[in-house]
Amino acid sequence: MSESDMIQIRVPASSANLGPGFDSIGLALDLYLTLDVILSDKWEVIPMNRELEEFPKDDTNFIVKTAAEVAKRYNKELTPCQIKVSSNIPLARGLGSSASAIVAGIELADCICDLKLSKKEKFHIASLMEGHPDNVGASIFGGLIIGCQLDEDIDVEVIHSIDLELVAVVPKEELLTKSSRGVLPEAMSYSESVAAGAVSNLLVAALLTGNMELAGKMMKKDKYHQPYRKGLVPHLQVIEDHALDFGAYGVTLSGAGPTVLCFIKKGQTSSVINGLKNLLPNMEYLPIHVDYKGSYVTGSLDTALLKK
Ligand SMILES: Nc1ncnc2c1ncn2[C@@H]1O[C@H](COP(=O)(O)OP(=O)(O)O)[C@@H](O)[C@H]1O
Ligand SMILES: N[C@@H](CCOP(=O)(O)O)C(=O)O
C-alpha cells in the first residue's frame, strides 16, 4: 500500500468556558485524538488504547456516525474504512473528548467525500452538532477561540498570540457533560445577566492584554455555571482557595468538569502541582500546553476507489 492510500487525522483536546466564557470561549490543548484511516470493504474501528475499548467497532461508532451525517448533508455517501483510533484525551472529564470525536468525524467525511470544506465551514457544522461553539472551535482552529452561536448564525475570532503555562487537575471519576448541564438554572435575572456579561467581557480583555492576574480574578467571578456546578465538583473550591498561593494566576472548571485547569505563573508549574498534590492526592496532574494548529490531516486516500 502506498503512502497516498492512507490518511491520519489529528484533533486536539480543549478546555471550554475559561470560567465566565460559558458556551463561547475555548482553548485548544496538546492532548490528541488520532485516526489512522485506510479504505476497506467494511467499517472497522480499532481502538489502540484500553479507554476506547468500550466504543462500537462498526459504523455505529460515534465518529463514523458523525461522518455519515456530514456526508448526508452534502448528498454524498461514505466509502467504508478501517480506522485505528488512539487518544490521550481523558474521557468525560471536561477536556472535550466528544468535541474532538465530532471534529474527527467531520474531517473524515471531508476526506472520504472530497468535500474540500474550509475550517470555517467545518466549524459551522461542528457547532450545530455540538450545540455550542467553544470546544469544537478550539479543536478546529487551535489557540484561543471566542465564538457566538445564535441559532444558525455562528461567528468566531481565533487568537493564536497567547502564551500560557497550564496544569490540568484531572479527577479519576467521569462526569458527563449532559449531567453537568442538568444542574444549570433555566433563567437568570436581567441584573445578574448584565453582571455576568461584564465579568466575561473583562476576562476577554485581560486575556488579550496579557493581564493574567485580572483574568484569574474574573475566572473566579463567573456567574454563569461554576457556582451551580460546584456541588458536583467539590475539589474546585479547594483548588480555588489554594492554587494562587502555590503560584497560579487563576483556576477554572474545564468545560463541564470535573477537570480543573490552572493558569500558572512562569516557572511555577512544579510548585502548583506539589502544593495541590498534598491537598488532593487522588487526582492526576497534567502539565499542559496550548495547541496552536487545530485539527489537521496528512496523507490522502485513493480517489479512484471512493464513491462519488
Ligand atoms: N473517541 C471517541 N469515540 C467514540 N465516542 C467518544 C469518543 N470520545 C468521546 N466519546 C463520547 O463522548 C462521551 C463523553 O462526552 P462528554 O460527556 O461531553 O465529555 P467530554 O468532556 O470528555 O467531552 C463519551 O462517553 C463517549 O460517549
Ligand atoms: N460549554 C460547555 C462545554 C462542555 O465541554 P466538555 O469538554 O465538558 O464537553 C459546558 O460547559 O457545558
UniProtKB/TrEMBL annotation:
<dbReference type="InterPro" id="IPR006203">
    <property type="entry name" value="GHMP_knse_ATP-bd_CS"/>
</dbReference>
<keyword id="KW-0067">ATP-binding</keyword>
<keyword id="KW-0028">Amino-acid biosynthesis</keyword>
<comment type="similarity">
    <text>Belongs to the GHMP kinase family. Homoserine kinase subfamily.</text>
</comment>
<dbReference type="InterPro" id="IPR006204">
    <property type="entry name" value="GHMP_kinase_N_dom"/>
</dbReference>
<dbReference type="InterPro" id="IPR013750">
    <property type="entry name" value="GHMP_kinase_C_dom"/>
</dbReference>
<dbReference type="GO" id="GO:0005737">
    <property type="term" value="C:cytoplasm"/>
</dbReference>
<dbReference type="InterPro" id="IPR036554">
    <property type="entry name" value="GHMP_kinase_C_sf"/>
</dbReference>
<dbReference type="InterPro" id="IPR014721">
    <property type="entry name" value="Ribsml_uS5_D2-typ_fold_subgr"/>
</dbReference>
<protein>
    <recommendedName>
        <fullName>Homoserine kinase</fullName>
        <ecNumber>2.7.1.39</ecNumber>
    </recommendedName>
</protein>
<feature type="binding site">
    <location>
        <begin position="90"/>
        <end position="100"/>
    </location>
    <ligand>
        <name>ATP</name>
    </ligand>
</feature>
<dbReference type="GO" id="GO:0005524">
    <property type="term" value="F:ATP binding"/>
</dbReference>
<keyword id="KW-0808">Transferase</keyword>
<keyword id="KW-0963">Cytoplasm</keyword>
<dbReference type="GO" id="GO:0009088">
    <property type="term" value="P:threonine biosynthetic process"/>
</dbReference>
<dbReference type="InterPro" id="IPR000870">
    <property type="entry name" value="Homoserine_kinase"/>
</dbReference>
<feature type="domain" description="GHMP kinase C-terminal">
    <location>
        <begin position="204"/>
        <end position="278"/>
    </location>
</feature>
<keyword id="KW-0418">Kinase</keyword>
<dbReference type="InterPro" id="IPR020568">
    <property type="entry name" value="Ribosomal_Su5_D2-typ_SF"/>
</dbReference>
<dbReference type="Pfam" id="PF00288">
    <property type="entry name" value="GHMP_kinases_N"/>
</dbReference>
<dbReference type="GO" id="GO:0004413">
    <property type="term" value="F:homoserine kinase activity"/>
</dbReference>
<comment type="pathway">
    <text>Amino-acid biosynthesis; L-threonine biosynthesis; L-threonine from L-aspartate: step 4/5.</text>
</comment>
<keyword id="KW-0547">Nucleotide-binding</keyword>
<feature type="domain" description="GHMP kinase N-terminal">
    <location>
        <begin position="61"/>
        <end position="143"/>
    </location>
</feature>
<keyword id="KW-0791">Threonine biosynthesis</keyword>
<comment type="function">
    <text>Catalyzes the ATP-dependent phosphorylation of L-homoserine to L-homoserine phosphate.</text>
</comment>
<dbReference type="Pfam" id="PF08544">
    <property type="entry name" value="GHMP_kinases_C"/>
</dbReference>
